[in-house]
Design a protein that fits this description.
Length: 455
């Protein structure tokens, strides 16, 4: 349990009642709905939806197969581009990617084709009797993948398809990365992340070793020596701090820590609940935290951001979810001080009003306070420097705290590739991490085969 919140009460509802509050955010399409929706696709020749998809899924092609009632063909077309297409269909911000680009997304049509929902429908109903992809003949090559998140899993699967053997080193007890530990429970329900991992491993040739953490019981130098290539899908595992006094007081916690606990518990009624809750941040994690606290039964949930709505990392769709769950969104306010009660526990926070002065964010001189039993910070995650502390890892070129990679996902160290949130490419989306892993796998395969031919 979360020690910083042990003094808080539990939710008032029972386990079954709370479980209902965390049901599927977007119920799946019925067969009739899928048929009607797939018929709306115009199968555009230039397909702007494909150009907007970070994982290059041939969207018109899979939708056409749904229309023809060929669900296995539709699913295979999706998975050939994105092996984690099931989770991406549930968590991907389609409203700012493929669906935003859809030619039906205009005032006359009212709504784009529901691409994400159709993708989910195809994958949920394909009914594969065996893994849809076969391994190429064994290459005799072994690749180390660090991190069993979306990037690492995607890379491993594509390498296995090419006949290579892959060992994934994962720090946590379960595979899945963000899908398992960091996504709102109502977005990925029914242990979907683990079922997707099991499906992916069905191709064979992939071994996962848990409890292996780079910088602790694992070093990049050793992996580089022992394997033919290395892929780093490390993610961002450290949490940014507010930089305020009393930040370690009971009642103040990183949102990611609570979300991880919430996703792993079998009984939501045993979680600590803040009746009055503050969330600091403006991205999807902040929204997920605020909405889940509201669904657990918090009476007063406030989300505070230092800039305006237009600058929030969370999409308008996510903001609407927060509002629909009675979350108050406060903008143009900066955390100024943690307020404590007589027992040294969080009782609220003081904020400084902010505004733009000649294009720069500045304090206005006004302050206000919000009461809270707990404060959850979601102001971004950062790189765990300890993971790259060995001599070879220290040679990796960086862009800020992210690992620098080229278009092939190759780092500055030959034979070492990286992808996902630990690199500076993209917007830290699951679908982009999957694409990074796929691109890295193709680059690794090409390089290994080139070496074989040269020999």
């Amino acid at each position: 349990m979360i020690d910083a919140l042990n003094h808080l009460p539990h939710p008032r509802g029972g386990a079954e009642q709370l479980a209902e509050q965390f049901g599927d955010l977007a119920p799946p399409l019925t067969a009739r709905q899928a048929a009607v929706e797939s018929s709306r696709c115009l199968y555009c020749f230039d397909a702007p939806c494909v150009n907007a998809c970070p994982s290059d899924i041939d969207i018109p092609s899979f939708i056409h197969r749904i229309s023809d009632e060929n669900l296995q063909g539709a699913a295979e077309r999706i998975l050939s581009a994105n092996i984690l297409g099931g989770s991406c269909a549930r968590v991907c911000p389609t409203e700012i990617l493929c669906e935003q680009a859809c030619v039906r997304n205009n005032a006359q049509e009212c709504a784009p084709v529901l691409i994400g929902q159709l993708q989910r429908y195809a994958l949920d109903n394909a009914g594969f009797s065996e893994h849809p992809f076969k391994r190429s003949p064994a290459s005799g090559k072994r690749i180390a993948v660090v991190g069993a998140g979306p990037a690492g899993l995607s890379c491993a699967h594509r390498l296995a398809m090419h006949g290579h053997d892959v060992v994934i080193f994962e720090a946590r007890d379960k595979s899945g990365g963000l899908n398992e530990y960091g996504i709102a429970r109502y977005k990925l329900v029914d242990d979907y992340a683990q079922r997707e991992v099991e499906f992916l491993l069905g191709i064979g040739g992939i071994e996962i070793r848990h409890g292996q953490r780079l910088g602790d019981n694992l070093s990049l130098s050793e992996l580089h020596q022992q394997y033919d290539s290395v892929f780093l899908g490390l993610g961002l595992n450290a949490v940014r701090q507010l930089g305020l006094p009393d930040e370690q007081a009971p009642g103040l916690l990183a949102a990611t820590d609570y979300i991880r606990e919430l996703r792993q518990t079998d009984d939501l009624s045993q979680l600590p609940l803040a009746d009055r809750c503050l969330v600091i941040g403006a991205g999807n994690t902040a929204i997920d935290m605020a909405v889940q606290m509201s669904r657990l039964g918090a009476r007063d949930v406030n989300l505070v951001y230092r800039r305006g709505h237009a600058d929030m990392g969370a999409t308008e769709h996510e903001q609407d979810i927060a509002k629909a769950n009675q979350v108050r969104l406060h903008t143009w306010a900066r955390p100024d001080a943690v307020l404590l009660d007589d027992n040294g526990r969080v009782r609220g926070m003081r904020f400084a009003r902010t505004g733009l002065v000649e294009g720069r964010l500045s304090d206005t001189g006004e302050n206000f306070e919000l009461a809270a039993d707990a404060i959850f910070t979601a102001i971004g995650q950062c790189f765990d420097e300890h993971s790259l502390s060995d001599p070879l890892a220290a040679q990796l070129a960086r862009d800020g705290e992210r690992i620098r990679v080229d278009a092939s996902m190759c780092t500055s160290v030959p034979g070492v590739y990286a992808g996902g949130d630990c690199t500076a490419l993209g917007q830290d989306l699951t679908v982009q991490a999957v694409q990074h892993g796929k691109l890295a796998a193709e680059a690794i395969h090409a390089q290994l085969m080139l070496n074989v031919e040269a020999a």
